[in-house]
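Batch manifest, entry 17 of 40.
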Amino acid sequence: MATKANNPDQADTPQDAVTGEEISSTTVPPSTPSTNQSNESARNAYSELLSPAKKSAKHHESPPKPRAPPALTTFSGRAGLGAYTAAPESFPTSRVISYDGNFVTINDLYPKSSIHLLLLPRRPDKQLLHPFEALQDPKFLASIQQEVKKLRLLVAKELQRRFGKYSIKEQERENAMEKVLNETEELDEATLPSGRDWTKDVISGVHTHPLMAHLHIHVLSRDGHSECMRHRKHYNSFATDFLVDVEEFPLTAVDAKRRRKAGFLNDDLVCWRCGRNFGNKFVKLKHHLEGEFEEWKAE
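Output type: C-alpha cells
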C-alpha cells in the first residue's frame, strides 16, 4: 500500500501535477480557420475506429452558441486550453480529435500514457469552475459522463488497433476467426475466444487540483508509457486519488476528496500493474514500467 505524505501541510496546500516548463509552454494563439471547413463541422482523428455517426452529437441541453474565435487573443499558461474551446476548427486533427457545440476533444499536449485525451466542455458558465463545483450540476454531469463513456470506448479501440498484434488473447481470437473464415473450423460467438477487453485498460477523471484554468476531463490508457512522464508528480497525478473518476460524482459535502486536494503527489510511487512500492525512486519506477509495458501489451 502506498505511504501517504506525512507533512500535514502538504494535504492542505494544492500542488501542481506538472512542471513550470509545461505550464509556460501552453501558449496557443488560434490560427485562421480553414476556408473549407464550417465553424461547427465535427472532426474525428480516430474515425476509422468507430461506426458512422452524425456530424454533431446530440445532448439533452441545447448547445451554447460558439464564441467567435478572437483573432488577436492569445491563450497562454494556465488559460491555454481556452484556445481549443474558442476555435477548435483552427487546429489540425492531430491535436483536435473532434468537436461540436458542447465539447472539444483533444490529444493532450503532454501525454502521460500511450493515449491521453482531454475532454473540454464548451459551456461558458462551467468552463472556469473547479470540477468539484461544475460536476454538482446533475444535467451537466450526466452529459459529461455520457461523453466520457464514448471516449473510453474510443481509447480502448485505439489501444486494440495499436497493440492488438502483441496481445496473446487478441491473437487467439484472430486465429480462431481466421479458421472460421477459411471454413476449417465451425465456431459460433459463444465458443470463440473472447479476446482482450481493452476497456479495462482505460482510466478517466478530473484532478483534485487542476493545473489548467479551463474545465477538462482526462481519458487515457493506464500504461503510463510516455516520454512526457518525467516526474514523481506526473505519475502520482494518475496513480493516486488525485484523479477522481467522473462516475464518483456528485460528491457529498463530507466526501474526503473535498478535504484532501493535495498531498497525493508526494505519496509513494507504486506500480499500477504489479503493486511494487518504489518509495520516492522515480527513475527506478520508470525503468520498471518499461518492462511492465511490454508484458502488459502481451496479455
